[in-house]
UniProtKB/TrEMBL annotation:
It comes from Streptomyces gulbargensis. Residues 445-469 are annotated as: Disordered. It comes from the Bacteria. Residues 6-258 form the O-acyltransferase WSD1-like N-terminal domain. SUPFAM superfamilies: CoA-dependent acyltransferases. Belongs to the long-chain O-acyltransferase family. Residues 301-446 form the O-acyltransferase WSD1 C-terminal domain. This is Diacylglycerol O-acyltransferase. Pfam families: WS_DGAT_C, WS_DGAT_cat. Pathway: Glycerolipid metabolism; triacylglycerol biosynthesis; Lipid metabolism. Its EC number is 2.3.1.20. It catalyses: an acyl-CoA + a 1,2-diacyl-sn-glycerol = a triacyl-sn-glycerol + CoA. InterPro entries: Acyl_transf_WS/DGAT (IPR014292), O-acyltransferase_WSD1-like (IPR045034), O-acyltransferase_WSD1_C (IPR009721), O-acyltransferase_WSD1_N (IPR004255). PANTHER family: O-ACYLTRANSFERASE (WSD1-LIKE) FAMILY PROTEIN, WAX ESTER SYNTHASE_DIACYLGLYCEROL ACYLTRANSFERASE 4-RELATED.
Amino acid sequence: MSSELLAPLDLAFWHLESPAHPLHLGALAHFGPPPAPTAADPGPPDLLSLLACRAAAVPRLRTRVRDVLLPVGGAAWAPDPDFDVHRHVHEIALPGDDFRAEATRLAATLMERPVARGLPPWEMYLLSGAPDGSFAVLVKLHHALADGMRAVAIGAGIFDEIAGGRRAAPGGCPRPVPHRSWLPGPGRLLGLARDRLGDLGRAVEVGASVVRAGRLDARATAALAAESSGTRRIATATLPLDRIHRIRRTSGGTANDVLLALVAGALRRWIDGRGLPLPGADPRALVPVSRRRPGVTAGPGNSLSGYLVDLPVTEPDPAVRLAAVRRAMDRNKAAGPHRGAGAVALLADRLHPLAHRFGAPLASGAARLLFDLLVTQVPLPRSALSLGGAPLQALFPMAPLARGQSLAVAMSPYGGNVHVGLVADGVAVPDPDALAAALTAELDLLDPPERAPGRTPARTPGEAVPDTP
């Protein structure tokens, strides 16, 4: 198995991390009870062994980061010669009285801890102990390993429907697929050189936009910016997808516009509930945008750009908030994901590896000058999923916090709902549950519960929200 150089953005994420600012993505997946035993299948599967076996069969999860001589300052993914999946996959039994709440609290504690850098940078935890046999799985993947779409492609390898397509090995465990390199062959080098020259002009344009978009005041960040405490709090919310689409049909725009407006309204409600004054200016959200082609998730590394959107927290009318978000997103889409300050991630491709290695400590605090919180959507496979026959009921994605920021919002549609994961700094935002409750309250403002239900046809499990950036 060959080595593969870290892409520039992956290298940036690798060096931006510090013990107090871990840069891993996460997901907390809740499963129903496994199927009852039958004559043909006399007992439930050993879920821990099944999870370990399937994780070990994903090639990317068997690789670690190592330094390389060339390019100077660079690093590469290489097979871990001492790979042992049991260093990465663990089981923790929880009290069963309020299993989901206990799983969320434990997930917050586990998300505080950086993944080990000398090993393949990922962890999985089987959380058991529910009286009815249901369970949860917490997945942590370093951001250098994958962006949101790539993380889904990697993590999906644990599900029955994806693992079932692999060639089985003796003992029922899928054979690891040989790791392959995505380094360009000689025939592609000339084309890449031409692309790099064209990209240089765009990089200059993005760099100028970043400078113009930088803010030196803290009027919009008082409630959200804080020195990192190294602690995490996590909260979850579940929003019915048919109600999101009912608002979209009534008000125009996209489902993603509706979700961003709900976040804006929830922030306003949360700030008011804490007895704080509204900010002097609207907080700004970074909305990541994948640069992968539709239907393509298997490419190496991170492939991201982004939009910057001012969330209209200072606007009291929820309908006006939604209209403001829709206009802002329309402007972003008209400019495209490769232009503007939100495309700051593209600049990583233009820097020498040494710049990432030595410049990361200086650049790590720059995020607060551009945006106040992250709001991202992570699409899931459209089919129903299961593990060991146990159906996936909900999956709450979790995004990392940038230095100096205290809140990240991630959303995944699945099974007719949008599952929202809120990751917060435990000191700056000790009450993310209040923010999660505010999302539901804001949904009731835009779509009052007394509206006649049932006008929107049911959606298949995992169906993506359409018209997202």
